[in-house]
Amino acid sequence: MRAGQLRWLAPPILLALASLASVSIGPYSRVGLPQLVDLMVGHDIPSTYFYIIVYRLTRTAAAIVLGVSLASAGASLQYTLRNPLVDPYLAGVASGALLGVTLMIYLGRVGFLELYAAAMAGGLLTLALVTVVSSLAGGGASTFLITGVAASYLLSGLTMFLMIDLGPRLPGALYWMFGSVAFVTANILEKSAAVAAASLAGLLLLARKVNTFMLGDEVARSLGVNVSLVRALSFLLASSATSAVVAMSGPVGFIGLVSPWLARRMYGSNFTTVLPAAATIGATLTVLSDIAARLVIYPSEAPLTAVTSVFGAPLLVYILLKSRSEGSW
Amino acid sequence: MRAGQLRWLAPPILLALASLASVSIGPYSRVGLPQLVDLMVGHDIPSTYFYIIVYRLTRTAAAIVLGVSLASAGASLQYTLRNPLVDPYLAGVASGALLGVTLMIYLGRVGFLELYAAAMAGGLLTLALVTVVSSLAGGGASTFLITGVAASYLLSGLTMFLMIDLGPRLPGALYWMFGSVAFVTANILEKSAAVAAASLAGLLLLARKVNTFMLGDEVARSLGVNVSLVRALSFLLASSATSAVVAMSGPVGFIGLVSPWLARRMYGSNFTTVLPAAATIGATLTVLSDIAARLVIYPSEAPLTAVTSVFGAPLLVYILLKSRSEGSW
Amino acid sequence: MVSVAVKNLSYEVNGVHILNDISFTHSSGLLMIIGPNGAGKTTLLRALAGLVKFRGSVELDGVRPEEYRRYISYVPAQPSLDLMARGLDVALAMNYRPPDGLWRERFLEVLGRFGLGGLANRPVISMSSGEQRLLLLAAALSRDPRLLILDEPTAFLDVTNRTKVIELLQELAGDGVSVVVATHDIEYTAVADNVAVLKSGRLVSFGPPREALSEELLSDVYGISIRRVDRNTPSYMPELLLKRFSK
Amino acid sequence: MVSVAVKNLSYEVNGVHILNDISFTHSSGLLMIIGPNGAGKTTLLRALAGLVKFRGSVELDGVRPEEYRRYISYVPAQPSLDLMARGLDVALAMNYRPPDGLWRERFLEVLGRFGLGGLANRPVISMSSGEQRLLLLAAALSRDPRLLILDEPTAFLDVTNRTKVIELLQELAGDGVSVVVATHDIEYTAVADNVAVLKSGRLVSFGPPREALSEELLSDVYGISIRRVDRNTPSYMPELLLKRFSK
Amino acid sequence: QVQVINRKLSDISSSVSNINSTVMSEVSSRLANESEYLGELLSQLNTSVSSQVAKIRGEVSGLEASIGFPVAIVDALNQTVYVPSMPHRVVTLDPASTEIALAVGAAGQLVGVDNDSLVYLPPPFNYTINKLYQNGSVASIGSTWSSPSVEAILALRPDLVIGTAGWGYNNYIASVLSQYGIPVLLLPSSSSLSDVYKSIIMVGEATGHVKDAVSIVENDSAIVDSLESRLHGLPEVRVAIILWVNPTYVAGGGTFQDNLITLGGGVNAFANSSGWPVVTAEELLEVNPQVIILMSNGGLFNESYLIQWLNSSIGPAYKNISAIASGRVYLVEGWYESVLSEPSVLAPYGALLIAEILHPQAFNISSLPSVISPSTLGVPGVNLEGGPA
Ligand SMILES: Nc1ncnc2c1ncn2[C@@H]1O[C@H](COP(=O)(O)OP(=O)(O)OP(=O)(O)O)[C@@H](O)[C@H]1O
Ligand SMILES: Nc1ncnc2c1ncn2[C@@H]1O[C@H](COP(=O)(O)OP(=O)(O)OP(=O)(O)O)[C@@H](O)[C@H]1O
Ligand SMILES: [Mg+2]
Ligand SMILES: [Mg+2]
C-alpha cells in the first residue's frame, strides 16, 4: 500500500520540487532559495530581487503550462489515433505557427504581440484546414494522420522558402524554432494559458469517451460514443492547446511524445489516469529541462528542445531496457 | 487488360520522361533537348554545353538514387514495423549524419569529402547504436520505433547545441539540413550509389519474407521467417541505404513517407510489388521536384525538401480525397 | 423488457445486397440469429446496435438504436482491444458513463462465475482466446444493459463455459434483459425465446424455435441434410457428420 | 506421414506454469487436442509450431520444429492479418517460399470447395468472420504442408462449413498430411485418429478417441457432468444443457 | 624593377579609366542635350577612348600576368589552388569575398556575384557592384542563404571562383566546380582581423593585385595601430553588443565582434561565453554592462523595443542595468551595421567606431548621439557619403 501511494504521490511531489528549484536557480546569483524564503515569510527584500523572482516564476509557470499542454495533447492524440508515434504537432500547428512567425520577421514586423498573434493564427488556421480536409475525406484515424503530415510538410516547405529570403534575419526565426520559455512574458503567458486551459478542460471532459477507444472503434460506437466526433474534437482541442503553447514558446519537442509513454508505462492503459499523469510528468520534465537550459551552456540559454531531447532520450532508453523482460511496450 | 498494362507501365515511363526532362531543362537555356540530341548523335557541341549536360546527368542520377533509396527504405520500414507514420529516418540516421556534419563545421573541417565522410559515419554509427539497443531491449517492432525516436531526438538535441555556437557558419549546416542534389559530384554519387545499391539488393532479397509480415508476427514466424532477424536486417539495410543518400544530399523529406503510400494505393498490399513500385514512384517524384528546385527561385537553388513538400503534399491530399469513397486508407 | 422491432431492413455496400427487406418483432427474452457464414448475421446485429446506416427501420423499445445506445451492450465477434489493457481497464472503458457505482462488483461477479477473477489485473495479451471472450462478456454485463447484443458469444468457449454462458443469458432474459445473439451453435436454439434464420441476407424463418425450426428448413438453409440427433433433445446435427460418426 | 513426438514438454511464463511435463507420440493422421479454456491447447500448438521456447523436446518427423517449419502450416485462433490485404495477397504471403507453382490453383480449389472463390480479390476487412477463417485455411493448405496445425478451425463456422472442414481434414489425413487441431467441439473427436486431453497444463489422456475418452474423464476435465447424447453416435453434451433442453 | 613597371602600368591604367569614367561622363552629360550632333560626336569619342583604354588594359594585365602568373595558393582547406593565368572571368560566392575582390581592384574581372553581395555590401562597394550589375557586366548567381545555382556559375565560364570556406554551400560548390577544372579559392572564415588580412592577400595573389592587397592590409593595420596608441591608458569599458532582441543574441567571446571590442578599448561583457549566445534579461542584469550597442537590423529594433522587452521580463529591475541607468545604449544603423558584423576590409573602421562609442572623449566628441549611423557619427578617415576615402 505504501509503495502504491508513493506511485501516485511521486509525480506531483517531483513537480513541486522542480518548480521550487526553478524559482531558486538562475543567472542572477544574488537571488536564490534564501531570498525566496525571505519573501515568503514576509521579510523585506530589494525590489530587484522581487522582480527577478517574478520573472523566474513566470518562466516556471510557462514551463508548466507548456509541459502540461504538450503531454496532454500528445496523450489524447496517441489514444484517439491509436498510434504511439503521434506527437502534438501532428496537425501541423508547429509548422503553421513557424510560418506565421517567419512571415512576420520577413515583413519586418517583430512586435512581441505581433509575432505571438502570427504564430497563434498560423497554428489555428492550419488546424482548421486539416480538420476540414480530414472530415471531407471521411474522418478516419488514418485520414487525420495523413492530412496532418501533409500539412506539416507543406507549411514547413513554404517556411523554408521564406527562410531563404530572410538572409541575416534568419537566427531570429531559427531560435524560435528550437523553442524556449526564457522569453515568455506574463502578458503572453496569460493568453496562452487561457487557451490551453480551455482546450485541456475540453480534453478532460472527453477523457472517459476517449478511454473507450481502447475497445476498438466498433465497440466504442456501440456504447454511444460518437467516435468520429470525439476523434475530431480531441484533434481540435489537443491541437489548439498545442497551438497556444507553440505560439508562446516555439515547438518544444519530445515532451508530447514521451510523457504519455512514461505515464502509460507507470499507470497502465486507462486514459482517465494516463491523461493527468502524462500532464504531470510532462510538466516536471519541462521544468527540469528549463533549469538545465539555463545552466548547461551558461551564460547562453540553451534551446529547450535540445535539452528535453538530450536529457529525455537516455531516460526513455533506460526505461525501455528496464522493462525489457516485462514485454509491455 | 489495356488499362491493367498501363497501370504497370505508367511509373517506369513517367520516370523515363522525367529523367529526360531533367537533363534537358535547366536555367542555362541554351542547353536543351536539341543540344542533347546533337551530343547523342555525335555532333560537336561547345564544351560548356557538354559540362552542363554532364552536370545535369549527374544530378538526375543522384535524384534517382535518392528517390529509389528513400522510397524503398520507407516502404520496408513501414511494412516491417507495421506503422504507416514511419519514415526512412526512423533510425535517426539523418540526425546522426547532421550531427557529423555540424561537428565537422564546428571544428572548422569543412572539406567536402570530410563532410561526406562525417555524415556517412554519423548515420551508420547511429544506426548501429539503435540496432544494438533495440536488440538488447527485445527487438520488438515498438522497441525499434522507440529507440529510433529517442536516438533522433538525442542527436538533434546535441546538434542544436553545436548549431547555436556556429553563428555565421550556421547556413552551411542548415542548408545541408534542407537537402539538395545540386552539389552531388560523380565521385560521391558513386560511393553513395554503391552503398545504397547493396542495401537495396538486400531489401529486395528479403522482400518475400517481409511480405509475410502482413499475416502477423505469429504466422510469419510459423512459416519459418525469422521475424526478429528480418525486422532487424530490414532496419539495418533500409537505414544504411538512407544513410548513404543522406550523406550525399542531406535529409530530403516526404519522399520516403509518401511513396509507399502511393504505391500501396495503386498496387495493393503485396510488398514484392509495392517495393519496386514505391521505388519508381519515389524516383519520379524526386526527379520532378529537382527540376522544380532549379527553376522555382532561379538563380538560387531551392532546398529539395521544400519542393518535395510543397508539391507533394497537395498531391497526397488530392489522392486522399479521391479515394474517400473507396475507404481504403 | 426491450422490444426489438425491425421493419423492411435492407443494407447494401458497393452495390452488393447484404441484407434484404428484413422484418420481425422480438418482444422480449432471448433471440438467436442463425444462418450460414456470410448470411448477414453480423450485419443485422450491427444494424440493431446502430452501427450501420440502413434502409428501413429498427426500433428498440420504440426508439431508434442511436438513441438507445445508452442501454445497449454490444460485443462483436472479433473485437480489436488494446492488448496492453488490463481486465479492469476494459470494464472501466465499457462503463464510460456509469449508471451507478456497482459496475466493478458486477464485472467481478461475472468473472467469478467463470472462475476467472484473476483476469481483472492481467493484460489482455496474456489471456487465452476463451478468456478474452469471457472478459468482454463480463465487461459488457457490468454496464447493466437493457439490451445485450452478442456476436457468436460461444465461439472459443469450452462446453462448460458455453453452457454457463447460455445459462447466464437465460437468467438475464429472465431478469428482463433482452438478449440478441448470433450463433452457429444451432443446438442451443432450443433455449431461445425466438429464433431468426437468415439465408443470403433474407429472413427465411422467425419465431419460437419449436415453430420456426424444422429439419427441412435447416437442411434447406445450410444446404446439407440436417437431422435432430435425438428425439428427446431438440439438438440438430448434419447427417453427413452423423454418418461419419457411426462408420 | 509426419510423426509428432512430444517428450516432457513444460512451459512457464513469469513463474506461471502453463504446460506441465507433457509427453505423447502421434504417429500419423488427425490429432485433436481438447480441454477447457486456459488448459494450454494454444500454447501446446505454438510449441509444436516452434513459436515458443519450452523445456523438454518436440520432434516432428525426427527433427525440431524450428527445422521443420518449411513443411508446417499454422493457423492461429485469432490471426492479426493486414485488413487491407486481398485474399490472393494473403495466400501469396503464405507461400513466400513456394514449393511449386501450383499454390494458386490449390488455394482457389479450397476456396471453391466452400463456394468462396470471390474472396481471392476482396480485402480481408470486407469478409465475414467465417469467411476470414476459411480464407486463412485455404491459404494454409495452398502451401501443401506436411503438417497442418490449426487452432480452433471450426470457430465462427456454420455447421455446413464445419462439416466440410472436418471432411477436408480427414481427407488430408488420408493423403498423408498430419493434422493437429485444438478444438472445443468435443463431438468431433469421434473422427480423430488420436485425442489429447489437457487440463490445467497437464495431459490427462491420450489415444484413439474410443479408448482415451469416457463420460467420466470428460466430466472430470470440464468440471460438469457430460453425457453421450446418443449411444449410436459418440457425441458428448453437458448434462446441464441436456436438462435444459428437455425442460 | 618588375614592381616599378607594374606600378607605372597600373598608374596609366587608372588615370585612363579616370578620364573615361569621370571626365567623359561629365562632359557628355553637360553637352549631350545641346545638340544631337555634338552628342553623337561625343559618344564616338567615348567609344574610341574606351576601346583604347581596353587595349591598354589588356596590355597591362598581359604584362602583369606574365609577371605574376601562374600562381599556386594554399586555401583555407589546405588545398593548393592553381590559377594558370591572370583570371578575367571571376565569380565571387558571398558578400565578404566580393568586398575583398572589389577592394583589391578586381572589379573589372568580375563576371558573377551572389545576390547578397548586391544587397548587403557597405559603401563604396555597394555602388560599384550595383553599377556593374546594372550595366550587365556582372550577373547574379543566386542567394547564399539558399544556394547559388551551379548551372548559373558554369554558364558564366569562370576562370576563378572565390568564396569563404564553410559559408553556405561554398564548399559543395567548390567540389562540383573543380570537377570541371575551375579553380575555386576558399578563404578562411574570419573571426579576427588577422583572418581578414590573410584573405585580402590571397585574393590579391589570385587576381593579380598583390600590391593593392598589401597596401590595404598596411593601411588597415596602421589604423588599428593608431587606435591602440590613442586608447592607451584609458580604462576598459564593459560592453554588450546585442545583435537581435527576443530571442536576444549577443556577441560572445572568440567572435569577430569580440575582437573589435578589444581593439576599441572595451571588454566584452559576454567574453566568457563562445559564439553568439542567447541571453535573458536576468542575464543582462547579472553581467551588468556599462554600454549596450544594439544592432537595428535594418530598422527592426531600437532602444525602446529593447526596454520594452526588458521590462516585460524583469519589470522595473531593468533600470539597474548600468548602461540603462547611465543612458549608454547606442543603436547602430545603416551600413555601420555591416561594418560591425561582416568581417571584411572595413573591419578596422568597426574598431574605430566602437572606440568612439566607448571613449568619446578620446576623439573629442562632446555629445555622442544615441543613434550611431553614417549621418550622425563620422569615423576618422571615412567619407560619409561614399564610404572610406
Ligand atoms: N464490401 C463488401 N463487398 C462485398 N461483400 C461484402 C462486403 N462487406 C461485407 N460483404 C459480405 O456480406 C456478407 C454478410 O456479412 P456478415 O458479416 O454479416 O455475415 P455473417 O452472417 O455474420 O457471417 P459469419 O457467420 O461468417 O460471421 C458476407 O458474405 C460478406 O462477404
Ligand atoms: N503472461 C501470463 N501470465 C499469466 N498467465 C498466462 C500468461 N500467458 C498465458 N497465461 C495463461 O496460460 C493459460 C493457457 O493459455 P492457452 O492460450 O494455451 O489456453 P487455451 O487452452 O488455448 O485456452 P482457450 O481454449 O481459451 O483458447 C491461460 O489460462 C492463460 O491465462
Ligand atoms: Mg458474423
Ligand atoms: Mg486457445
Automatic annotation (TrEMBL), chains A, B:
The chain crosses the membrane at residues 49-77, 89-109, 115-137, 144-164, 176-207, 244-263, 275-297, 303-321. Keywords: Cell membrane, Membrane, Transmembrane, Transmembrane helix, Transport. Coiled coil: none annotated. It is found in: Cell membrane. Pfam families: FecCD. One of its GO terms (cellular component) is plasma membrane. It is a multi-pass membrane protein. SUPFAM superfamilies: ABC transporter involved in vitamin B12 uptake, BtuC. InterPro entries: ABC_BtuC-like (IPR037294), ABC_transptr_permease_BtuC (IPR000522). The keyword Transferase does not apply. GO terms for molecular function: transmembrane transporter activity. Belongs to the binding-protein-dependent transport system permease family. FecCD subfamily. This is Putative ABC transporter, permease protein. It comes from Acidilobus saccharovorans (strain DSM 16705 / JCM 18335 / VKM B-2471 / 345-15).
Automatic annotation (TrEMBL), chains C, D:
It holds the Pfam family ABC_tran. Keywords: ATP-binding, Nucleotide-binding, Transport. One of its GO terms (molecular function) is ATP binding. SUPFAM superfamilies: P-loop containing nucleoside triphosphate hydrolases. Residues 4-225 form the ABC transporter domain. Gene3D superfamilies: P-loop containing nucleotide triphosphate hydrolases (3.40.50.300). InterPro entries: AAA+_ATPase, ABC_transporter-like_ATP-bd, ABC_transporter-like_CS, Metal_Ion_Import_ABC, P-loop_NTPase. This is Putative ABC transporter, ATP binding protein. The lineage of its organism: Archaea, Thermoproteota, Thermoprotei, Acidilobales, Acidilobaceae.
